[in-house]
Design goal:
CATH class of the largest domain: Mainly Alpha
CATH topology of the largest domain: Arc Repressor Mutant, subunit A
Distance between the termini: 64 Å
CATH superfamily of the largest domain: Winged helix-like DNA-binding domain superfamily/Winged helix DNA-binding domain
Order of helices and strands: HHHHHHHHHH
Number of strands: 0
Length: 173
């Protein structure tokens, strides 16, 4: 049996590992948060808070799992901010036809960004983690605190909404 004191020393992250984590993941975390909240200053604050949490908890973080820790901390910090600002909406009660469009437009990237912003915070987060950051369903579940089945459902519903929002490619191009 290994005493808990010894286990915590195994995971103790040193300054060099911390700096490597900052260099490796700060841009990705910033992009992830910015895509979700669309406010550069708030995104920077969340990233800073996230790395502060990592610094404070460095003794409890396994260096091999630091990426997951960082994205989880950033996600929860973002959710706390959203709840604090009371910007949450109940997506299930929103009518899809209210947010769909039929006009022609050629900037697919802009249309996709607009569509992603119409998603609920949870759907937007799981889509971003899956499609932009490349996490597996299991990793997304660990980050968001959802079960793997819930992650799959949120991703499926988000993709259906995005498909309906964007419509056929002929209408977009």
């Amino acid at each position: 049996m290994v005493p808990s004191l010894v286990c915590s020393q195994i995971f103790k992250m040193n300054i060099e590992e911390y700096n490597k984590a900052v260099d490796a993941y700060s841009d990705g975390v910033y992009r992830f948060i910015l895509k979700n909240i669309r406010d550069k200053e708030k995104a920077k604050d969340i990233v800073q808070d996230t790395f502060e949490k990592l610094w404070v908890n460095a003794g409890n973080v396994n260096p091999q799992k630091v990426k997951s820790y960082i994205f989880t901390a950033a996600y929860h910090t973002m959710i706390d901010l959203i709840r604090k600002e009371k910007r949450m909406t109940d997506f299930e009660t929103v009518r899809e036809d209210k947010y769909s469009h039929s006009r022609q437009y050629s900037d697919l990237s802009e249309i996709l960004n607009q569509a992603v912003q119409k998603l609920s915070e949870t759907q937007r987060s799981v889509i971003m983690l899956r499609d932009y950051e490349g996490y597996s369903y299991q990793e997304i579940g660990e980050i968001t605190g959802l079960s793997e089945a819930q992650v799959k459902v949120y991703i499926f519903r988000a993709r259906v909404f995005l498909k309906n929002y964007i419509g056929s490619m002929d209408a977009v191009i």
